[in-house]
Amino acid sequence: MREPELTEDQRLIQETARSLAEEHFRPLAARADREYAPPVGNLRILAEHGFCGAFIPEEYGGAGLGLFDTVIVMEQVARNCANTAILLSGTDGATPRSILHLGTEEQKRRWLPRFARAETLAAWSMSEPEAGSDVAAVRTRARKDGDSYIIDGAKTWCSGAQVSDLFLVLVRLSDEPGMRGVGAVLVERGTPGFTIGNHLDMIGLRATGMAGLNFDACRIPADNLIVPAGGMRHLFKVLDADRIAGNPTVCLGVAGAALDGATAYLRERKQFGKALSEFQGLQWRLADMAIDIEAGRALLWRAARRIDANEATPMDASVAKTFVNEMSVRVTNAAMQLAGGYGLSEEFPFERYFRDVRGMSVGYGTTEIHRNTIAREVLEGRYAA
Questions:
Q1: Cα–Cα distance between 20 and 15 in angstroms, integer?
Q2: What's the rounded Cα separation, in Å, for the pair 31 and 106?
Q3: 257 with 210, same domain?
Q4: Are residues 345 and 304 in the same domain?
Q5: Is 40 inside any structural domain?
Q6: What pLDDT, in 10s, does the model give residues 51-91?
Q7: Distance from C-alpha of 55 to C-alpha of 62, rounded to nearest angstrom
Q8: Which residue, of 35, 103, 282, 288, has the greatest Cβ tally within 10 A?
Q9: Cα separation of 64 and 178, whole Å?
Q10: Domain that holds residue 336
């Protein structure tokens, strides 16, 4: 479908990303899922076309694209390989964006060009066994020791961990209670005392290299501090962009692929002497799927444009993420149902689509947490219908 809201340059970005993903990513997506093999080579292909770390300014080797442009690219990648999209969201997400907006000039010049070339892959780590969405409960500790910090603790659910080179890690930097004592540091792969755990088997997104992180007297330079204690509000502002371009945009792309696949199946499959696409009840299912996708895209695009215009509110990311997370589960579940027995077979992509989106309403803040944000904005009078 031709999107009237896109400029000619944005249509070119969309078409180029779609072409790359269809040619290079889609044919290998199922195998990556079956073999739990992160498709890192796909990021090199994206980097060759300026789509890796696309938001990075030209002075640091990037394309200088806005968040909305990144959303366009991410959707096309996710339609063809959700695992590639998740890995791309790491190198276009919280860690590099934090370095750009919160880092020192030395950190920017050292890392950002490497992200843009996909020479260095990035991940970020917040979750702990006792601290998921509750950042104030972070226990992993980084204590100052001369010109170093020494880190002790453990993290879990770190997407891209097994293939990433640089990690932004939330740590407790002081004895101040709650988030006042929490900040963030950068940790390089291979640092003594830092180990990456075994692959965590998940229902979906099996090729993202998700693993836990362990820190045992891990010593890093003090210059690797990126968010001092008490500065988490600045990091959360950066995360609003990441929450839009990553998690929900991946869900939108997968939902689109599910609708395409279900439509093709109904056109080809015959029952009772005619194509399934001729049955009105099944047509209505397709219509509901299309309505859901259109609504989700509208919310995401609005949120991305508001962030680009520096006009975003806390509601924007939370509304978009909550709706698209849950919409994608509805759409992929419907696609499985429409495909009948084939929808449950690993020879077809339908069950993979469902598996890949199901956990997204848990990651990057559960939909319940985001509903808390939405309700707070309503109750405190900052939102009016």
A1: 9
A2: 40
A3: no
A4: yes
A5: yes
A6: 999 999 999 999 999 999 999 999 999 999 999 999 999 98
A7: 7
A8: 103
A9: 36
A10: 246-379
User: What is the rounded radius of gyration, in angstroms, for the C-alpha atoms of the chain?
Assistant: 21
Whole-angstrom CA distances from 214 to 31, 97, 128, 220 are 29, 24, 11, 14
Is 3 inside any structural domain? no
pLDDT digit string (tens) for 183-224? 999 999 999 999 999 989 899 999 999 999 999 999 999 999
| Cβ-count burial 264-287 (b if 16+ within 10 Å, e if not) | ebbeeeeeeeeebbeeeebeebbe
Question: Domain check: are 223 and 284 in the same one?
Answer: no
Tell whether the model's pLDDT for residue 132 goes beyond 90. Answer: no
Instruction: Label residue 6 by pLDDT band (50, 70, 90).
Output: very high
**Which distant-in-sequence residues (6+ apart) come within 8 Å of 3 by Cβ?**
11, 14
What's the whole-number average pLDDT of the chain? 94
Q: How many residues belong to the chain?
A: 385
Say how many C-beta atoms besides its own lie within 10 A of residue 78's C-beta. 30
The phi, psi pair for 252, rounded to 5°, reads -60, -45
Look-up of token digits 């991410």: 74
- The residue whose two tokens read 């060009």 is 113
